[in-house]
Amino acid sequence: MQAYRFNTHISDKGIITLPYEPMLFDKEVEIIVLTKPKTNSVPDGYMTLEEFRVESKASLTNILSEHGIH
Question: What is the pTM of this model?
């Protein structure tokens, strides 16, 4: 069994558009739908939530230390 992978989008009306593939015309196929995992990519210049948590905790600790608060 040959497998073909197509990245596509399901419209808000439930329509799936596949690429034009004549080799699949008049063939019985089995379609499996897998949702893509969300990427956690962060734009340049921004921090992930974990980086922000660590950075802000370190900053707050430094500020409190500078003012003699422990």
Answer: 0.45
Integer Cα distance of 53 and 56 in angstroms: 5
Tokens of 53: 């948590």
Tens digit of pLDDT for each residue in 25-68? 999 999 999 988 777 677 888 888 888 888 888 777 777 888 88
68 close to 61: Cβ distance less than 8 angstroms: no
Q: Using CA atoms, how far apart are residues 26 and 41, in angstroms rounded to an integer?
A: 41
Residue 4, exposed/middle/buried by CB under 10 A (0-12, 13-18, 19+)? exposed
d(CA 31, CA 16): 11
Distance CA(34)–CA(5), nearest Å, equals: 11
Handedness of CA 19, 22, 25, 28 (dihedral sign): negative
